[in-house]
């Protein structure tokens, strides 16, 4: 049955009922596994999402990734598993699979990567999202888009609520990402209104944790990389600017709750608490001191106390040791 929703400027819009999913969903004698597609699933957040989805024995997970920023190493524990499938695929090309849910994460999220090829970035956001929405329409799947806090641009409102429309620059060097995500959100709602697609939109704020790319240019990885290499931590003046940082496991929990809940979104996902850059640098400095001066068994007992230490341990594992490090013990 069609539903009506109100738009403040255009009056009422009629939303069609969602497409019918696979008949297996309604089988009385055979309970099929939930088939879930994760685009960008070899990336930082995507691979942690895959780990969590695979914990449920009723899930079959398909990852589509072109490995521009993602890595097979992030998924190596699942390769060969009977409920897991990995496809090298660029979402700017159509993908024909039978799935029940789509987590659409595919897009470089670091300025270093998305500014490397801005046209490709905006094509990934726009054409890639169109292709995933077309797939969702064909198979009757629910689709979740990971958007970004960057849709708010250079905000004049702090903190930003989901009702804030932003203060944006459509022609800047970062616009391929910011505006691409804004168009992707527009496409999601237009498919929802016109075709009845079940959509979910998450606006992700700063996230950190294991498997971050140490050279991605973002502040947490920059500080950690400098600490691991024994370099001074570089803080841009004045140092009092604030950011919020959400640990990746919490972000994944939020994405899954949004997908399986009843709220269409957009929903801001992040940590409401904020650090100044000086506070963050000091925290990284303290934890790096622990890494360099404590015994391995003690380090292992500290891992569960915070994701920052986990990041440092993860990055330090493959760092070459110099002769001057012989009197130190590393995990």
UniProtKB/TrEMBL annotation:
Residue span of region Disordered: 1-23
Signal peptide residues on this chain, from the entry's feature table: none
Domain annotation NAD-dependent epimerase/dehydratase: ranges: 36-268
UniProt subcellular location: Cytoplasm
Cofactor: NAD(+)
Keyword terms: Cytoplasm, Decarboxylase, Lyase, NAD
Pathway(s) annotated for this protein in UniProt: Nucleotide-sugar biosynthesis; UDP-alpha-D-xylose biosynthesis; UDP-alpha-D-xylose from UDP-alpha-D-glucuronate: step 1/1
Main location: cytoplasm
One Gene Ontology molecular-function label: UDP-glucuronate decarboxylase activity
Its EC number(s): 4.1.1.35
One Gene Ontology cellular component: cytoplasm
Superkingdom per UniProt: Eukaryota
Protein name (Swiss-Prot/TrEMBL): UDP-glucuronate decarboxylase
Source organism (scientific name): Urochloa decumbens
């Amino acid at each position: 049955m069609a539903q009506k929703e109100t738009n403040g400027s255009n009056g009422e819009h009629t939303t069609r009922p969602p497409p019918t999913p696979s008949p297996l969903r309604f089988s009385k004698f055979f309970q099929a596994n939930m088939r879930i597609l994760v685009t960008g699933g070899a990336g930082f957040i995507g691979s942690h999402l895959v780990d969590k989805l695979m914990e449920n024995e009723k899930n079959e997970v398909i990852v589509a990734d072109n490995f521009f920023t993602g890595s097979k190493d992030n998924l190596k524990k699942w390769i060969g598993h009977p409920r897991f499938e990995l496809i090298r695929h660029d979402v700017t090309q159509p993908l024909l699979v039978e799935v029940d849910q789509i987590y659409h994460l595919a897009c470089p999220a670091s300025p270093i990567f998305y500014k490397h090829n801005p046209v490709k970035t905006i094509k990934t956001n726009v054409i890639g999202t169109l292709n995933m929405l077309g797939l969702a329409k064909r198979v009757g799947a629910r689709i979740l888009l990971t958007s970004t806090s960057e849709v708010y641009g250079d905000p004049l409102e702090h903190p930003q609520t989901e009702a804030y429309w932003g203060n944006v620059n459509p022609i800047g060097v970062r616009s391929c990402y910011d505006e691409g995500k804004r168009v992707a959100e527009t496409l999601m709602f237009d498919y929802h209104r016109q075709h009845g697609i079940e959509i979910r939109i998450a606006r992700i704020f700063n996230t950190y944790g294991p498997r971050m790319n140490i050279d991605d240019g973002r502040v947490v990885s920059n500080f950690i990389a400098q600490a691991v290499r024994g370099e001074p931590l570089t803080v841009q003046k004045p140092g009092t600017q604030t950011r919020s940082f959400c640990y990746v496991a919490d972000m994944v929990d939020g994405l899954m709750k949004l997908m399986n809940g009843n709220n269409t979104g957009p929903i801001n996902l992040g940590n409401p608490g904020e650090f100044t850059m000086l506070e963050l640098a000091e925290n990284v400095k303290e934890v790096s001191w622990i890494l360099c001066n404590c015994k391995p068994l003690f380090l292992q007992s500290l891992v569960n106390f915070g994701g920052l230490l986990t990041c440092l341990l993860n990055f330090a594992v493959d760092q070459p040791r110099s002769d001057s490090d012989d009197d130190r013990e590393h995990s």
